[in-house]
């Protein structure tokens, strides 16, 4: 195995993987090598460009900490996160579609009673959200655990404010006997994903904007059903067709309606897929 050249090196690397004990690891690393080599050949990667790529990935790692995951952001803006969601969340028609999880979910958010105000002081126009959780046959899903989280009127999540001592715009609710749950909050607004790191540099270098259309995040878990991670997007938002992370689905667009008293209301119904028997 000497004198390898650009025509023989890929096979040589693949051969070196022959003894990988775990078949799935073998499949993934083989695929990665084949596609990486093919990519380098296709674009005729120069050594300077290779080094720039290494520096970019290094900077991406340096930007990560407990509150910031720049690699996930990179995956998001390259469409890899949404591709993975699409491949792993094929559901029968009629089920609510899934979309990206995003980096702003927080484990252990406060639990709220039905109808409570999850804004908890977040800035924005008041809004009431009323939802149902059902199965495909229309059966109400009682006792589902619903995590909601959202940005405020300035397009920021609570975790993006230094020194905020209480969760705002997030909470955990439970559906009642008829599968219903309600909460009060503030109207979601469009916001730019964090673009002060290497991912922002990549967006600017490729002439892209960092904006996501206004949305509410939901994660719905119920016994006997597949967990649903999704958003409801705001109808009419200017970024619905150019979401920085490719997460919009037509079926997830909801109508925030202004009420006579000036407040807003959103009604949205979720349909869960039955869990596959183990
Ligand atoms: C979000 O919706 O919270 C989000 C998703 C992907 C990247 C950044 C933010
Ligand atoms: Fe979000």
UniProtKB/TrEMBL annotation:
Keywords: Dioxygenase, Iron, Metal-binding, Oxidoreductase. Residues 102-273 form the Intradiol ring-cleavage dioxygenases domain. Residues 22-95 form the Catechol dioxygenase N-terminal domain. Coiled coil: none annotated. One of its GO terms (molecular function) is ferric iron binding. It holds the Pfam family Dioxygenase_N. GO terms for biological process: catechol-containing compound metabolic process. The keyword Iron applies. Its cofactor is Fe(3+). SUPFAM superfamilies: Aromatic compound dioxygenase. The keyword Metal-binding applies. It comes from the Bacteria. Belongs to the intradiol ring-cleavage dioxygenase family. This is Hydroxyquinol 1,2-dioxygenase. It comes from Cupriavidus lacunae.
